[in-house]
Amino acid sequence: MIVIVGLGNPGRQYEGTRHNVGFEVIDLLSSRNQIPVNKIKFKALVGEGFIGNQKVLLVKPQTYMNLSGQSLLEIMNFYKLDSQQIIVVYDDIDIETGKLRIRAKGSAGTHNGMRSIIYEIQTDDFPRVRIGIGKPRFGDLADYVLGRLVKEERELVSIALRDAAEAVEVFVKQDIQTAMNQYNK
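Above: the chain's sequence. Below: its structure in token form.
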């Protein structure tokens, strides 16, 4: 099984924010692959199904971003998974708005959700799909990532969300190298 985790914050007030693009990719994967994400388990909303012939678990942690690792650790322990069986999808301020970066492993950078995951599962050796949300020109970083996308950003990010969902599907059906070659631009 492959566990696909989209990072975000639960609650209506966070819908459509820059920090919730990971949740939006899970929603797209859910829709595209007819996998309802409606069970509450492992401190997360989850849905089990298939992408191609591969069994997957779609996950939206409900712990709030900064504690995302707690949910993932429970899942990994329950299913006895290693870190190569997870894919984490999340926003990244260090990437230009609307761009994707797929990596086999790496540091958390400035992302608190990723810091939590790396701390809890004790490795940074797992695949990830990062969606660029850009940096604020001025003002508070927390206000920026928790802010809603403006119209021009929404257009770019909508394309990136679709590409991220497709990249995850390519990764699951084929391998990470193929996904990286097709979607890292």
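The radius of gyration is 15 Å.
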